[in-house]
Write a structure and sequence with these properties.
2 strands; about 40% helix; Arc Repressor Mutant, subunit A; binds FE2/S2 (inorganic) cluster
Length: about 70
Amino acid sequence: MLGMLNDMAIACSCYGLRDSEIAEVIRDGAGSVDEVTEACGAGGSCGSCRPTIEAFLTVQGVRIPVAVG
Ligand code: FES
């Protein structure tokens, strides 16, 4: 997964956090969006990056994708 990340991509523009920084927080043990927010702030302002954080949690195997429909 980490090899697929663009290290310059900004995941959370409110806090200027890159994809790789969010991934690192998850790798260090954050297991939910709220825990990521607590650890680095991402998702704690406008909230528009919260779906991206959810996707990172899923891709990194923290969350199991749920089928919809
Ligand atoms: S873009 Fe992450 S809280 Fe606004």
